[in-house]
Amino acid sequence: MATGGNAIRGTRVGAGPMGEQDHGHHADRVAVSYWDALGNETVRYFAAGIADEEIPEVIDSPHSGLPAGRDKENPPALAKTEPYKTHLAYVKERRTEEEADALLDDALHQLRERRGQA
């Protein structure tokens, strides 16, 4: 007779005297609804005995990836995204050489003051 593994004949892995109630599948739970800015509702379940302060006010919505809050009328706002900037727009924002030198001198002066070498 060929047997495999270490299991005792006639048993299943995880089988035993404990039922689903002992595993927590039928524990008392509280449903909490969260809404994101697009109006998607997400329901999360928490243990009935948990304090209200321990239930998070904001979660990430699995539907949209946006923040979702417990207040249906005032959900968290959409994240503001900046429009794409071209390389030329970044070049225009660069500092002049004089501004860069002034910033470097100021930073070095502050560092020397902190070290006591001024």
From TrEMBL:
Pfam families associated with the record: RbpA
Presence of keyword Transcription regulation: yes
UniProt keywords, alphabetically: Transcription, Transcription regulation
InterPro entries according to UniProt: RbpA_sf, RNApol-bd_RbpA
Region (Disordered): 1-24, 59-80
Keyword Nucleotide-binding found: no
Gene3D superfamilies referenced in this protein's UniProt entry, alphabetically: RNA polymerase-binding protein A
Subunit structure: Forms a complex with the RNAP catalytic core and with free principal sigma factors.
Annotated protein name in UniProt: RNA polymerase-binding protein RbpA
Gene: rbpA
